[in-house]
Every structure is written in structure tokens, then in C-alpha cells.
């Protein structure tokens, strides 16, 4: 495979989509679509979320220090795309049919249709030129019961979750739900490592 040098970019590095939920100052829910989301370890699993540009979602996270991260599924994609392509500063944005409820632990809006939701509390933020990174404690995780049912094959549970990914090329993608192998299947590929 011949390689070429390019400018800094993360194309073809799949990122799972989440809708971040906050409450506006008037108490109504606000959601935006984001994918710069990952994890870290600091004695327990935490979340790091980066938001570029100026957005109502970022304003509300800075103000309240809490938000929800709702996994986007294939069936949720049309509403997620709408929410991600309309500014939160537009007061009419959220005048849509969207079923939400309050988080189980934090005062954050949660999407009823999302099968995996993190309730997050920011404990540290880092501001950069054009973006902010929020380091968060996971205060609660709301999960569709069937996704934790080990009697259901993991491939089937992934099909049920149906997460949507983004690769930075202007297209949304589904996972093909096809198992490639298990962790450790190739640990002896080159024989035993000798010390």
C-alpha cells in the first residue's frame, strides 16, 4: 500500500455519533449532534468530549457542567441529522416531536429512543483555539435492558443497538455487524514471545 502525506485529518477513522442533551435557560431540552467523543481512565472510566466552534450546547455545558450523551441509532438518524444541522440558538429548533425524559441521576434531558445514554458531569475543561475539551465523570449509564442480556449473541445485540458512525467524508455509515474475531485470537500468530 503506497501512502501519501496529507494535512491533519481524521477521515476514515470511524467515530460513533452522539446527541448531547442540555437544558436551555428556560428549562426546555436542547440537543446537538457530535462525534468527538472518547474515553479515559482516572481510577474509573471517564468520558472526554470535544466541541468545536460556538454552540448553544457548549454554552449550556459550560454553564451547568452536566449533559447527556445519547447514542445515535440508525432509526434516530433523520432527527439527529436535523438537530446537528440546525443551530441551537434558533429558538424554533426544538419545536419538533421528540420524546425525552429527565436523567435518572443528573438534571439532563435524555432521549427515550436511545439505547445507550451517559449522564455526564464535567470536572475539568480545556479551552483551545476553536474548541473545548470536557473531561467528564460518568454519573450514570442508562442502557436498553436487552443490550446487557448475555443470553443474546453479541452480534445480535450490536444489530439491535444499530449505532451510526461518521468518517469525516460527509456521509453517515452503519456498522456491518459482522464479527471479525475475538480479542486474543491472534496472540500466538508469531509464536511465543521470548524474553
TrEMBL record:
Q: Name one GO molecular function term.
A: FMN binding
Do you know which Pfam families this protein is assigned to?
A: Flavin_Reduct
Cofactor(s) for this UniProt protein: FMN
What residue stretches are annotated with the Flavin reductase like domain? 14-150
SUPFAM superfamilies linked to this entry: FMN-binding split barrel
**What keywords is this UniProt entry annotated with?**
Flavoprotein
What residue ranges are annotated as transmembrane? none
* Record Gene3D superfamilies: Electron Transport, Fmn-binding Protein, Chain A
Q: Which family does it belong to?
A: Belongs to the flavoredoxin family.
Please state what the protein is called: Flavin reductase like domain-containing protein
Amino acid at each position: 500500500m503506497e501512502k501519501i502525506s496529507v494535512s491533519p485529518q481524521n477521515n476514515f477513522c470511524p467515530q460513533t455519533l452522539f446527541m448531547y442533551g442540555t437544558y436551555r435557560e428556560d428549562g426546555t431540552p436542547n440537543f446537538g449532534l457530535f462525534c468527538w467523543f472518547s474515553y479515559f481512565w482516572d481510577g474509573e472510566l471517564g468520558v472526554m468530549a470535544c466541541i468545536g466552534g460556538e454552540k448553544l450546547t457548549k454554552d449550556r455545558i459550560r454553564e451547568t457542567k452536566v449533559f447527556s450523551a445519547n447514542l445515535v441509532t440508525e432509526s434516530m438518524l433523520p432527527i439527529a441529522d436535523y438537530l446537528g444541522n440546525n443551530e441551537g440558538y434558533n429558538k424554533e429548533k426544538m419545536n419538533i416531536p421528540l420524546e425525552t425524559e429527565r436523567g435518572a441521576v443528573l438534571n439532563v434531558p435524555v432521549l427515550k429512543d436511545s439505547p445507550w445514554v451517559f449522564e455526564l458531569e464535567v470536572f475539568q475543561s480545556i479551552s483551545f483555539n476553536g474548541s473545548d475539551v470536557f473531561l467528564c465523570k460518568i454519573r450514570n449509564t442508562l442502557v436498553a435492558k436487552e443490550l446487557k442480556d448475555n443470553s443474546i449473541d453479541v452480534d445480535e445485540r450490536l444489530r439491535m443497538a444499530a449505532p451510526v458512525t461518521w468518517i469525516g467524508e460527509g456521509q453517515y455509515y452503519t456498522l456491518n455487524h459482522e464479527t471479525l474475531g475475538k480479542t486474543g485470537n491472534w496472540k500466538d500468530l508469531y509464536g511465543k514471545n521470548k524474553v
